[in-house]
Amino acid sequence: MYNRLLALRQQLRKAELQGFLVPHEDEHQCEYTPARANRLEWLTDFTGSAGLGVVTLARAALYVDGRYTLQARTQLDLKHYEILSLHEDKVEDWFLSTLKQGDRVGYDPWLHTQGFIEQMKRHLATRKIELLPLEMNPLDAVWDDRPAPDLHPVKPHKIEFSGEESQDKRARIAAQLQADGVEALVISSLDSIAWLLNLRGNDVANSPLILSYVILQKSGRAMFFVDPGQVSDDVRDFLGPKVTIKPYDQFTEAVRKLGAGGVKILVDPRKSHAAILDLLHQGGADIQEGDDPCQRLKACKNDVELAGMRQAHIRDGVALCKFLCWLGQAVATEEVTELSAAEKLEDFRRAQSFYQGPSFDTISGAGAHGAIIHYRASEQTNRPIGGDMLYLVDSGGQYLDGTTDVTRTIAIGQSTEEQRDRFTRVLKGHISVARARFPVGRSGAHLDTLARRSLWDVGLDYDHGTGHGVGCYLGVHEGPQSISQRGFEVALEPGMVLSNEPGFYKPGEYGIRIENLMAVQPSHFEDEERSMNIFETLTFVPIDTRLINAHMMTSTEITWLNIYHAQVREKIAPFLEGKELAWLHRATQSIMAM
């Protein structure tokens, strides 16, 4: 790893640069990137799904959020890298403390948003440090074994799953473009493109996405920039005559020409890389910065999508229940490891109809590994599951009709009083969010404290958001909706799907997380004086009652849990038999108030 850092620094010297930015993101700002775009992982060995590397000729650092602090410490060479917080430590301050007046920092304009670059430029200019876009990425020049593009056939996402034809989606957005006097919309977010065109692919790990760009015109016509070899005649017929397929590498020139004559072009600066805005400026466009309209429309699932999500979660619940039944017996009779457990869970999911693959790499954490929020087991770290410990398994599936994400914490052997206390506090927070009734127009930030209150009561907390948006056979992490301390901008609307996943993590000992997915629904209680929303729980998997201290639960919380477990039995039992059915009945027995 250090040799790679030295090689990159040599390239910086050749280019007369004193610093360089290495983001996790690719040209499409993807969370999960193709192997060819894993520049940060290649340089640092860090495998998390969010992070930013900064390199100078003498120092290097990695910025991560709270989910990855422990993971980064185990994966990085701490002799050569500092670990800093994405949310608490400013990247520009690190450069200001490291470089001197007149130094130059390079960046790849295809990998950073315009907003981030403008912020960096303003701060670095206070010390007369230049931030320069580079035509060639110096890291790519030293990445000798960089993987070739791994492209796959494009597939139609049929109306029985999407619930709305692509031409109707395009017409809705085109009408808004016309009303706003906008000539065209440039889209680089792969989930927006998949949703808008009703297409799915397999170019990105764990997400059914296609490496592509789209330019949507106010007429409703679209230019789809993709490798033509990925698109069959059937897909061309599916798209229809108003979608023109163009080679992926023609996008740059098309954007440059798009703004000729000073026409107004809509671009989302938070979703588009700086290179797109630079090209539009060069072409003379009147750039209209605004939200990608696909994102909000995509977030609010229609009735067909919600029905599909419900069915996908029942099948996923069957797979999880089969797995948990197997796990309880296997750990007592054979050697089970983090990796073998994850493989067994995948086997159970693979047997379900419409299953397309995992929605993310399964987090299978035994004991202390459960405290690493986004832990990924490997041959080097693989640990047996057994003895007395907590086992945390966070996993999800991609189905043609929906995407799932569920976490359960399981008692293996005997648990401690402290572990039961922490588990119960996490459960109380989970129930508080699941039961929330909140005014229309409120955001997830207004609900985040509900999940944390019981932990805060005893001076505890967790360093991640309480909930993220989830797509429908799309990304398992979807914006713009969230339940988090920073999620004030976006109101929660009916049809949005979010996770509910409070947790607690004791480094070196254990981790706890309880996660279900929920859909926002309008409330219809008779006593409401204003319009309200509620959550519909979509996930149906038992919560381990052996870890609950019932003395800490209110009667309302116990009633919620008992009703939830009755619903799990009702929905999952028809698909189980024998020992698995018997296990389900035991796992969902009512608990009594103490």
UniProtKB/TrEMBL annotation:
Residues 308-521 form the Peptidase M24 domain. Residues 535-591 form the Peptidase M24 C-terminal domain. Residues 4-128 form the Creatinase N-terminal domain. Keywords: Aminopeptidase, Hydrolase, Metal-binding, Protease. One of its GO terms (molecular function) is metalloaminopeptidase activity. GO terms for cellular component: cytoplasm. Gene3D superfamilies: Creatinase/methionine aminopeptidase superfamily (3.90.230.10), Creatinase/prolidase N-terminal domain (3.40.350.10). SUPFAM superfamilies: Creatinase/aminopeptidase, Creatinase/prolidase N-terminal domain. InterPro entries: Creatin/AminoP/Spt16_N, Creatinase/aminopeptidase-like, Creatinase_N, Pept_M24, Pept_M24B, Peptidase_M24_C, X-Pro_aminopeptidase_P. Coiled coil: none annotated. Pfam families: Creatinase_N, Creatinase_N_2, Peptidase_M24, Peptidase_M24_C. PANTHER family: XAA-PRO AMINOPEPTIDASE 1. Belongs to the peptidase M24B family. This is X-Pro aminopeptidase. The lineage of its organism: Bacteria, Pseudomonadati, Pseudomonadota, Alphaproteobacteria, Emcibacterales.
